[in-house]
Amino acid sequence: MRAGKTGRRASRVVGAAAAGIAAAAVAQELRTPRARRRWHGRVLGVPYDFRVPRLSRIRRTWWNTSSDRLLVPRAFGLGWGVNLARVARLAGLRRSRS
Q1: Is 97 within a domain?
Q2: Which residues contact 94 (CB under 8 A, 6 or more apart)?
Q3: pLDDT reading at 20 higher than 50
């Protein structure tokens, strides 16, 4: 029973941290002059992208054959996602780039 309470507490802490980082990212954008706002960047080292998601950007994030990075900034939102093309290469399901 105790492990359940600990898990819920950890989940709340992580959620509060994510909300705080998201709020800091929005505040950072709102402090920028309107003409220079990009709505994507980094805050406290965490990447964010609040632009309207496009299929091309989602595809490039989730399946980027030209990158060796496993964790990549998310196509929309806060934090990192997984480059599945890199996972496939590591698992031997696809050839490495030449």
Answers
A1: no
A2: 65, 85, 88
A3: yes
Give Cβ neighbours of residue 96 (< 8 Å, ≥ 6 apart).
Answer: 89
Residue 53 and residue 43: Cα distance in Å, rounded? Answer: 19
Over its C-alpha atoms, the chain yields an Rg (Å, rounded) of 17
Q: What is the chain's length?
A: 98
What's the pLDDT score for residue 93? 87
Flag whether pLDDT at 48 surpasses 70.
yes
**Considering its fold, how many domains does the chain have in total?**
1
Mean pLDDT of the chain: 93
Residue 12, in any domain of the structure: yes
Q: Which domain holds residue 56?
A: 2-90
In a domain, 30, yes or no: yes
- Does some domain include residue 79? yes
Q: CB under 8 Å to 20, separation ≥6 — which residues?
A: none
Chain segment 56-90, per-residue pLDDT in tens? 999 999 999 999 999 999 999 999 999 999 999 99
